[in-house]
Amino acid sequence: MINKAILWPTDFSTTASHALMYAVEMANFYRVGLKILHVVPRPMGDENFMILAITPDELAKSMEEAAAAKMRDLLAKLNTDLKVETRIRQGDAAEEIVREANETDVGMVVIASHGYKGLQHFLHANVAEAVANGAHCPVLVVK
């Protein structure tokens, strides 16, 4: 039995939104809270942004502010009585999701898989697979 929150990592895609339905259903079933996590990638370094008029720190702040606005919109549309906690982190998506799952009060992760196959699977990092392999709690991967 799960008595800790359900973690739903999101990149705000349609696929991730589909997994939200499962996360809410699981949280309602177990009568636990819902944690929503979005990971903003870290800007790579000054040399990659020479043509920009902003620093990598300013870019990261702007990305976080955009993610926070998307998170507010998502919460406004989420019709639930669940206790919902949101978090925005910077870094590698898989690493940060695993860190959240393993270091906080999470009983299950419900994550979307973008379902890449063949060559696309090798060209795109499979975050869901990395989370399933790294998390200490159960992970539900939704296609």
From TrEMBL:
| Superkingdom of origin | Bacteria
InterPro entries listed in its UniProt record = Rossmann-like_a/b/a_fold, Universal_stress_UspA, UspA
Q: Name one Pfam family in it.
A: Usp
- The name under which this protein is listed is Universal stress protein
Species of origin: Shewanella jiangmenensis
**PANTHER family per the record?**
SENSOR PROTEIN KDPD-RELATED, STRESS RESPONSE PROTEIN NHAX
Task: Give the family per the record.
Answer: Belongs to the universal stress protein A family.
- Which segments constitute the UspA domain? 4-143
Q: Which Gene3D superfamilies match?
A: HUPs
